[in-house]
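Data card: per-record layout.
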Amino acid sequence: MAAGDARAARAVYGESKAYLEVGGRSLIARIVSMLQRVPEVSEVWVVGNAGRLAKALDEPTLKSELVKPLWIVPQYRNLYENAWLTYRRLLPGAGAEGRDPTPEEAELPILYLSADLPFATPQELSSFVRKGLAAQADYVLGLTTEHELEPFYPKDGLPGIRMAYFNLREGRFRQSNLHLVKPAKLGKRQYVEDMYEHRYQRQLGQVLGLAWRLFMDRGGGVRVLFYYALMHLAGVLDRSGLRRLADGVRRMIGLGRVERACGALLRASFRFVVTDVGGCALDVDNEHDLDVARLRFADWERELLRAAERLHGPLPLPARAGQGVAPLRVIPHGSQALPEGAT
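The structure for this 343-residue chain is written out next.
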């Protein structure tokens, strides 16, 4: 789980989002607690400011809920290093410097997600992982439809959150902050960070800079540049209220084409997976969204839990205490080895 405050992270009210409180609990504690109920998750690794994370996760309520090993890794220089170097350290028997996976281990997917998801439900994550495994791809990115997020728009005099979308032929989608990845299978891992840092597509200079780097890449760069430009144009038109024009542009951008272009750029198989419920797409990227999330938290959490249970059944795993699971551990950089069998 990414909970760092390096360059790709966006502060809210001058604070790293992982430590902001919503519903009386820090976002990082809330997401770690939720992951305890996802049956496909075997253990949780959190990357960020180790001292702050240890303090934020040292709450009695969370300790009583832990049924899976919880590891803290000090953040590296950027998102790419956080994801790749932590992956190399979580392999069985890896030392603090990590190691490359064997061919068999390289086929094991890792679930990556951000910490700023106050409305994520275990059912949505479980559904995403199962669909992602069925997709049999090296990189699976989660999407949520506009329809799932419309209930959280401002209405009836109450504040809400209106998201920006990828405008595609099949509809308008919000990326859901869920990534199921086989890191060692990505031939061009560095582009993941580039795309993440420029995911908001609001600053023209940054968009043009990324577009040029994509154009100069020989492996799918031209195709990605073409679809990236169309998606950016459709997004600008949509946010400007010119929906009919946006509809005309997005008809040229199909999900399958974008998947193939991204796969060519990453040198790996790439797929989108669309999940319902929608809570994982409700992140808090700015002060307005945080204020609304705090104000509407009780109502929205109740509605999302009801929707998740209606669509997928009750919580996959109960919150249980006293299972004798290894306590929270901080793994420093350096020569200290991880326990044998940590995965």
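Known properties of this structure: The chain has a mean pLDDT of 85. Residues 256 and 285 are 28 Å apart (CA to CA).

See the next section for split statistics.
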